[in-house]
Amino acid sequence: LQQTDKSGPSTNVLHSVTATRIMEQIQAQTRKDNKTKRPQTDDSNDNANANNKKLKIFADDVTGVKFTSGKATGSFTSTAMEVTSENAIREATQEEILQSQFRLMKSLKEKGYV
Fold it and tell me: Does the reported pTM lie above 0.70?
């Protein structure tokens, strides 16, 4: 049995000569596989980007009240803001989404355990 000189989590483990040789072969094969590994195609990147897109939840869907972003009124009254003539519907905040979920769970009148 011999002790390996490598630093790492297994520095205090005694290995036989055979085990050391096998571990070195496995590490060499892993390094070789990592070097020859082909890069991902563009199709897989497109699918990953599609999964990472954020779903827009608007405030009127969550609260039932139609809220606008306020850009049109801000541009009308302020010279510092960019001129906009359309009222865009505002996205719901995280707090509004949570409050909507809480209201829904409370209306079920069932006990919930965490």
Answer: no
